[in-house]
Each structure stands twice: as C-alpha cells, then as structure tokens.
Design brief:
binds NADP nicotinamide-adenine-dinucleotide phosphate; seven-stranded parallel beta sheet; TIGR01777 family oxidoreductase; 13 strands; 303 residues; Rossmann fold; alpha/beta
C-alpha cells in the first residue's frame, strides 16, 4: 500500500514509518524540512515539502499527524492560532489532494487528542461523551471537522483521540523522567485529574489497525483500557524508578507559570477506548505499570 504521512518525522510518525517500511509499504512523507526528514526516515521514503507534490503519486492511504507541539509555549492568542492553523491548513491540503487525485485514497487516519473532551472530572468518557467547551476541545473539533471533509470524496476517515503517548526518547516521559530520576517528582495540584495514556507501540499498532479495517470510521479513543489519575501516574513512575515523589506542585503555581496551558496538567478525562475494544483491537500494554516496566527496561539495556 502507498501511504502518505504528515508529521512522519515526529515521535509517533517516526516509529510508524519504520513499521510501515518494514512491512513492505511504499512511504511518502510531507515535511517542512525534507533534508532533516531524510536523516530520520527509512531510506526509500519519498519526501516533499508540500502535500500537493504527491497529487499524482497514487496515494492509497493517508496518516495525518502534523502539528505545532501543544505544550512547548504559553498559549498566547498568536500561539493558539498557530496550534490550530498548523493542523487545519495541512489537513485541508490533504482534502484537496483527495478531491483532485484520479483515484482518491481509500482511507485517512487523522490526528486528534483526548483534549477533544476537555475537562470531564471523574466521569467515564467514551466516544459518545459530550465535550466540555474550552480551547483544547475547539482545537480538536476544528482539526477533526477539516479531516471529515475528505468523506465527501468517498475517503474513509478515522480520527485518533490520542492520550499521552509513552515511550523512551521523546513525548511526555522525556519531560517527566529527569525530575523523577532525581527524586523531585510530584503530583500536579490535587492529583485527581485523569491522564489517559498509551504505549507508543500500541498507538502505532492502532493506526495500522484503522488503516486496514475497511469497516471502521469516525472517532476512536486511542488510549489504554486502564487510564490513571495524575496521583497514580506519579506513584507508579516513582515506584518503577525506586525514587520518592513527595513534592506536589501546587495548581496555583502551575497556573501562574503556564497560564491557560496549565489546564493540560490540571484537568483531564477518564477516557476509555470503547470503539477500538469493540472492534477487536487488543492492547499489548494494558496497565501503566506494564508499559513503564517495558519502556524503562529497554532504556536500561541501551545505557
Ligand atoms: N505525543 C503525544 O503524547 C500526543 C498526544 C495526543 C495527541 N498527539 C497528536 O498526535 C500528533 C503526533 O504526535 P507526535 O508526538 O508525534 O508529534 P511531534 O513529535 O510534535 O511531531 C509532529 C510533527 O508535526 C510537524 N510540525 C511541528 N510543528 C509544526 C508546525 N508549526 N506546522 C506544521 N507542521 C509542524 C513536524 O514535522 P516536520 O518538522 O517534518 O514538518 C513534527 O515532526 C500531533 O499532532 C499531536 O498533537 C500527540
């Protein structure tokens, strides 16, 4: 299958690209910096800087992951615009490619996030739960709506409402491990907010699953069946590292330091992957402890 990816150089995209190339698929990637992308992608990958460069390339499937990182900068009005535009603009270009290709791709698996639901307190959340209206929700809703435009060309669209993606060498754990290794970890605020998470291998497997299953479309919560609260996450990571985690970070301090972006750390949703489980997807890493054990032991073997 010929797969076109955006965000192929990212934390998730790089691993997906490796797996797709190893499985014998033809891979094309859109990147803002094709030279840098060539250094991290499988050698046979075709890399261009614009989506429409692949208009006549016979693309059969699309995986759309590109976007400005959500937690790198304070959410000023300009940064919020960048977070939305960096996702919606490239998604619209993909829809244009679908409209103008002689034979449209069969499927587009497109990014979204647990932020779609906004702050949900302790309620159990599945794909039918009404969202809480806030910036993260509006960002994801615009991104999803842009992707769903491809449906009018006959393309099957599956949306990934992704939890925190965990693995060595990037993502959330790259930020959390240094303080926790020093014994300086601690919960955020009262620690009762949920942190849905997914091992990166399960996440890329879920993308492959959605690419392959012609009967599946619409939103899918991409997170392990056993989400944890921030307090449980903190405790489990500290135990795995054999370090104390006794220094809670007060919510008020996070709000002062990060502004509205503190909501990423202080609110969440008890999100469950109901539609993936109903469709028969099986997670290799169901519990946080099992995922962290695998990730940290791999890290150790590499040291
Ligand atoms: N990782 C997580 O925990 C997580 C959780 C929920 C949702 N997600 C979503 O899933 C997607 C993939 O996650 P990831 O962790 O692999 O992301 P990532 O490592 O931040 O990579 C995303 C890619 O998007 C491109 N990009 C970055 N800034 C951009 C900008 N301003 N304009 C256009 N393109 C830009 C980059 O590709 P080039 O430099 O090659 O152009 C980058 O490699 C993201 O959209 C993210 O929002 C991730």
């Amino acid at each position: 299958m010929h797969v076109l990816m955006t965000g192929g150089t990212g934390f998730v995209g790089r691993r997906l690209a490796e797996r797709l190339a190893a499985a014998g698929h033809t891979l094309s990637v859109v990147s803002r910096d094709p030279e840098a992308a060539a250094r991290v992608l499988p050698s046979a990958t075709a890399i261009r800087s614009r989506v429409l460069d692949f208009r006549d390339a016979g693309v059969e499937a699309i995986v759309n992951l590109a976007g400005e990182p959500i937690a790198d900068k304070r959410w000023s009005a300009a940064q919020k615009r960048r977070l939305v535009d960096s996702r919606v603009t490239i998604t619209r270009e993909l829809v244009t490619l679908c409209r103008s290709a002689d034979t449209p791709p069969r499927v587009m698996v497109s990014g979204s996030a647990m932020g779609y639901y906004g702050a949900q307190g302790e309620r159990v959340v599945d794909e039918d739960t009404p969202p809480h209206d806030e910036f993260a929700h509006r960002l994801c809703a615009e991104w999803e709506a842009a992707a769903r435009e491809a449906e009018s060309t006959g393309v099957r669209v599956a949306l990934l409402r992704t939890g925190l993606v965990l693995d060595a060498g990037g993502g959330t754990l790259a930020k959390m491990l240094p303080p926790f290794r020093l014994g300086l970890g601690g919960r955020f605020g009262d620690g009762r907010q949920f942190m849905p998470w997914i091992h990166r291998e399960d996440h890329v497997r879920s993308i492959e699953f959605l690419l392959a299953r012609d009967d599946l479309d619409g939103p899918f919560n991409a997170s392990a069946p056993h989400p944890v609260t921030n307090a449980e996450f903190t405790r489990t990571l500290a135990q795995r590292l054999h370090r104390p985690a006794l220094l809670p970070v007060p919510g008020r301090l996070l709000e002062l330091a990060l502004g509205e972006m503190a909501r990423l750390l202080l609110t969440g949703a008890d999100m469950r992957p109901r539609r993936l489980l109903d469709a028969g997807f099986r997670f290799d890493y169901e519990t946080l402890d099992a995922a962290l054990a695998a990730i940290l032991s791999r890290g150790k073997r590499r040291d």
